[in-house]
Amino acid sequence: MAENSRLAILGAGSWGTALAIVLAGKFETIGLWARDPERALEIEKLRENRRYLPGVRLPERVSVSNDLATTIADAGTIIGVVPSAYLRAVLEAARRYVRPGTALVSATKGFEDATLCRMSQVVRQTLPDSPVAVLSGPTFAKEIAAGEPAAVVIASEQIELAEQIQRAFATPTLRFYTSRDVAGVEVGAAMKNVIAVGAGICRGLGLGSNSVAALVTRGLAESTRLAVAMGGDARTLSGLAGLGDLVLTATGDLSRNRAVGVALGRGRRLEEILAETTMVAEGVATCHAARELGLRHRIDLPIVGKMYEVLYEEKDPRAAIRELMERRLTSE
User: Per-residue pLDDT tens for 75-124?
Assistant: First the structure.
């Protein structure tokens, strides 16, 4: 991994743009790739991502392009911030431009729906010659771009790589902790979006803090069970990538997944909600994959199951919450 030279970021949504802004002082140049050519031209010309981060100026060191070759050229490190449904296709298109040994940091949260792969597994399959790390933690892009303090986790099975990225990325406002537990970090990152939809439903139904706290706590238990079944460490789920990210996403007003849940709880249809949402709510697709993973590993995921019924089978949200409460009594 080449430190402090050129960084490439694939994905010019809110999180990709925020990372470009906060890391601009750490690299000589940053290439930011946008899928839509017109949007790339607009951001480059205005020096502002008006769709996702209006009012935040892009540093001069950041160049925006729709051309993968231009973005990736001479990059020592690449960050992937593409929605989970598109990550494989983008990396396959980018493969010819990625030099062997170039580190790929996945900042995408979710599972690939068709294969149930974690994002780092998608990276390994598409870029077998690239060392892989994952970046996760409790972060809202708007606050990161504004320079507010935050802490995240950088995980890699090669701990030396995680430590290199930690040094290369750390800023006065963004603190990095290292981890070897890639599976635990990724499962926590994915599952919190599903639980956040449920927390939003509670709010949309007019339920109070007790209900949200119960759902978040039991949601963390489900996330932990699945993470352990998939090779992760239970302790990781009590840290930034687990509990930290879950609390933020399930309770924060800037959470798009929570917002989807609030709208569902107020009686709106999912199709209408998603049609009005400019940002991707990963929890919707992740819920389907998480349910399938639970079945595959024979893990009890009652909250995921009820969210699946609400999202995919049009179950009444109030009935879903009631049925969760009426489940067979058990021990914690």
Answer: 999 999 999 999 999 999 999 999 999 999 999 999 999 999 999 999 99
Q: What SS3 string covers 155-209?
A: ECCCHHHHHHHHHHHCCCCEEEEEECCHHHHHHHHHHHHHHHHHHHHHHHCCCCH
The arithmetic mean of pLDDT across residues 242-251, rounded, is 96
Domain formed by 6-180, architecture: 3-Layer(aba) Sandwich (3.40)
* 192 is a catalytic site residue: yes
By CB neighbour count within 10 A (0-12 exposed, 13-18 middle, 19+ buried), where does 222 fall?
Answer: buried
Residue 4's pLDDT is what?
53
Could you tell me which CATH class the domain 183-325 is placed in? Answer: mainly alpha
Q: For the beta carbon of residue 206, count every other beta carbon within 10 angstroms.
A: 10
CATH 1.10.1040.10 residue ranges in the chain?
183-325
- Phi/psi at 198 (5° precision): -65, -40
Q: Which is nearest to 107 in space by CA: 117, 88, 120, 89?
A: 120
Kindly report whether the global pTM for this prediction surpasses the value 0.85. Answer: yes
Single out the catalytic residue among 45, 192, 306, 315. Answer: 192
